[in-house]
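Weekly modeling sync, notes
Attendees: S.R. (lead), two postdocs, one rotation student

Agenda item 3: backlog of single-chain predictions. S.R. asked that every request posted to the team notebook include the full sequence so nobody has to chase files. The rotation student volunteered to paste the first one in as an example of the format we agreed on. Action items at the bottom.

Example entry:
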Amino acid sequence: MTNYAQESKLTLKTKIGQNGKCIIEDSFFTPPLKLMAPFYDTDNKAEIMLISVSAGMMEGDRQELDLHIGKDCQVRLTSQSFEKIHDTQNGFASRNTQITLDTNAYFDFSPLPIIPFRNSHFKGATTICMHKTSQLLYGEIICAGRISREEIFAFDHFATTLKIYQDNKPIFFDNTILDPKESDLSNMCMFDGYTHYLNLIIIAPHISLESLKEMITSFGLNGGVSAISGGGLCLKALSNGSEALIKLREKISTLPILSD
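Predicted structure, as returned to the notebook:
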């Protein structure tokens, strides 16, 4: 049990304000979740930080996130720390996320890595509904566990789904199931001896497949890129630490966005 209500909710809705900048139109959150006020880069992209004031997710914790990025808004959502999934004993922790992107919206979802502790069980589900003119960078980095404590694949179960719709048509579906009891996650068809995994979906015309391949090589990562429906790309990369994966994602996030 946690010190907070077991179900935590967060909603975010953005719009273009009178000053021409993307602002938060409406937000709501319950402990331990909260949002920082946005700050802006040189291109007036709004960067909003998602904060959790707890030590991590525990048994029975449930999070419900609803993010609505308004017309013409450019938003980058980050987190303040690595996310820890503690020992969930005989239960599990879960998160459901709904993301909506309006016309000409740009959304970069870049949280820090998630660390499943020994005997943890996590379930996540994300659904993204986007307009054909909107752009998306959606990434997650999964660690094998607390490496320094030799908790490599010592978690019980980790499962996430990602569904992306463009103009109500499904363009991408990803189902990640990591179950160390059922599969040898260190074999060459899974992590192949690596301990950190980046899954990044990119639906943005200013980013090319070849440029991503060059970046993977320049960072010395084991990875690849493939095309998906809707003009998108799927990048997957493996490493023995989070730093190179975070830096790769940061470099992709800083690429200039095409304007109309």
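Discussion: group reviewed the output briefly. Confidence is low (pLDDT under 50) at residues 1-5.
Action items: rotation student to repeat for the remaining queue; S.R. to check formatting next week.
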